[in-house]
Amino acid sequence: MNSNYITKLAKDSLYSKKAMEMLFDKIYPIIWHFYKVRLNSTEDAEDLTQNACIKVVRNLDKFDSLKGTFLTWMYKVIQNMLYDFFRQKKIVTEDIEIEILDSAASPLDDVIFNENQKILKESIKNLGKRQKEIIEMKYFFNMKNREIAESLNIKEKTVSSLLSRSLDKLEKILNNDLTENGMVYEEN
């Protein structure tokens, strides 16, 4: 997803119903995924997604493109709504579980894909909360390091460093899992 395109769409949404509909179609699945991976209840995720979409759309006039991209602004809005939800329900936040969305071409590909997805999801559980969050922002939200830094109020170099360490750790976890399960074969 192109961050500049979404930002332009957000600005155009102030004056165009068509742009507003297009923006809504783009942000709904992003917001849904954000809540779905953080909440145990599909019903709560649906409610928060609907409320967040309404809040984002109603507050478009508060978005300032000079301060950052629309996705950065939206991420802060939906994240704050999640914190409010947890405070209201007095829920302890759970680890983020990232879901990889894709489909395979054949039944065999489906089996392989599902198994790989399970392994990756289990491996991601071994990362710290901040590491999971940065990976999600980078690879699901397609945010640039600068945007992630703005969202988390940290330096861009810190994002680069955390992302690099997260990916290195994930690679080690995956390699260990594959070796332990006999899925990596050494050449004779």
Describe the protein in words.
- With 188 residues, this protein is an all-alpha fold.
- The protein folds into two domains: 1-94, Rna Polymerase Sigma Factor, Chain: A, CATH 1.10.1740.10; 102-188, Arc Repressor Mutant, subunit A.
- It is 69% helix and 0% strand.
- It is built from eight helices and no strands.
- It has helices at 3-12, 17-36, 42-58, 70-89, 107-124, 129-139, 145-152, 156-180.
- Mean pLDDT is 79; it is low at 92-104 and 184-188.
Strand-helix topology:
Layout: H1 3-12, H2 17-36, H3 42-58, H4 70-89, H5 107-124, H6 129-139, H7 145-152, H8 156-180
Helix pairs in contact: 1-2, 2-3, 3-4, 4-7, 5-8, 6-8, 7-8
Largest sheet: number of strands, sense, barrel closure = none
- The tally of beta strands, per DSSP, is 0
The proportion of residues in beta strands is under 5%
Helix content: 55-70%
Could you give the order of the helices and strands?
Answer: HHHHHHHH
User: Distance between the terminal alpha carbons, to the nearest Å?
Assistant: 44 Å
In the CATH hierarchy, what is the class of the largest domain? Mainly Alpha
Question: Which descriptor suits the 3D outline?
Answer: globular
Q: How many domains make up the coordinates? A: 2
Give the C-alpha Rg. 19 Å
- The fold-level CATH name of the largest domain is Rna Polymerase Sigma Factor, Chain: A
